[in-house]
Amino acid sequence: MIERVQAAFDWLPPDLVNTLFWICVDIMKWLCGITGISYEALNIWLFVIIQPAMIVLFFVLWVRARKSARIMHTEHL
User: CA 24, CA 9: separation in Å to the nearest integer?
Assistant: First the structure.
């Protein structure tokens, strides 16, 4: 099974994840220089506060959209 999964991604460069990781680290270091906060503090803001808050926000918006679509659908019946 794992061979099939790996074969599906054979077209990707082998060091893509590593390269992408270091690009993200460089971007975060650049943001630290602009904002004046530490790398660790930026990590906390991004991955402990902002990202979970966005997940909750988008979940709430999705639930509202489903509820709205359901109400519109039942009104047209």
Answer: 21
This model's pTM is above 0.85: no
What whole-number distance in Å separates Cα of residue 22 and Cα of residue 41? 18
If phi over 0 gives left and psi between -120 and 50 gives alpha, with beta otherwise, what is residue 12? beta
pLDDT in tens, 36-56: 999 999 999 999 999 999 999
DSSP 77: -
Cβ(38)–Cβ(32) under 8 Å? yes
Q: Is residue 32 part of a domain?
A: yes
Full residue range of the structural domain in which residue 31 is found: 1-36
